[in-house]
Amino acid sequence: MVELYYLPLYLDMGIDQTELPGLSIHLPPRRAHRSRSQDILLSLITPFGGTQPANRLLESMQSEAAGVYYGSRGSVTSAMRSAAEHFNDLFLKYNAHLQGNRKDGQIFGYLNMAVLRGDVLFLLHVGATSSFLLRPDEFQHFQEGSARGRGLG
């Protein structure tokens, strides 16, 4: 069994913060698909450009995407992809509901998603983002070959 610890490294105006905005950790709900019943889902949305979305909006999106993940059949990577596509659909719908050509209210973001299943960690990146795995004897940096991904929205 793997123990998962997370350490949010987040500075706001040079001051250490105890919470990382946009981070959500979900345990399997009672009615999760049986293949997802032991999975721990983590998602981090990092907004960029446009408007900074309200934390409530991000939390709602993350809850919906977690529901998609835990309700999906198939492989872990297939379920992660479905959840990431759902995130993107939510961003697109939000942006489409803005009146006229008003682009100043649009939201965009990068997504880091991780699933811990037993002692296996699955990672998904959308946009210019990366992940780090720290162990007592090892440090790994995961990043897509092209760090110029478009992101969500």
Briefly summarize what is shown.
The protein is an alpha+beta fold and 153 residues long. The protein contains two helices and eight strands. A four-stranded antiparallel β-sheet has the order 3-4-5-6, with helices on one face. A two-stranded antiparallel ribbon has the order 1-2.
Q: Could you explain the architecture of this structure?
A:
By secondary structure, the chain is α+β, with helices and mostly antiparallel strands. Helices cover 25% and strands 29% of the residues. It contains 2 helices and 8 strands; from the N terminus they run ββββααββββ. The protein has a 4-stranded antiparallel beta sheet with strand order 3-4-5-6, covered by helices on one side. A two-stranded antiparallel ribbon has the order 1-2. α1 packs antiparallel against α2. The longest helix has 21 residues.
**Helix and strand pattern:** EEEEHHEEEE
Q: Give Rg in angstroms.
A: 16 Å
E-strand count:
8
SS field, number of helical segments? 2
Spatially, the strands of the biggest sheet line up as 3-4-5-6
What is the percent of helical residues? Answer: 10-25%
What does the largest sheet look like? 4 strands, antiparallel
The overall pLDDT, averaged over residues, is: 84
Secondary structural class? alpha+beta
Strand content: 25-35%
Residue windows where pLDDT falls under 50 for at least 5 positions: none
Shape: globular
* Euclidean distance between termini CA atoms: 37 Å
Oligomer: single chain
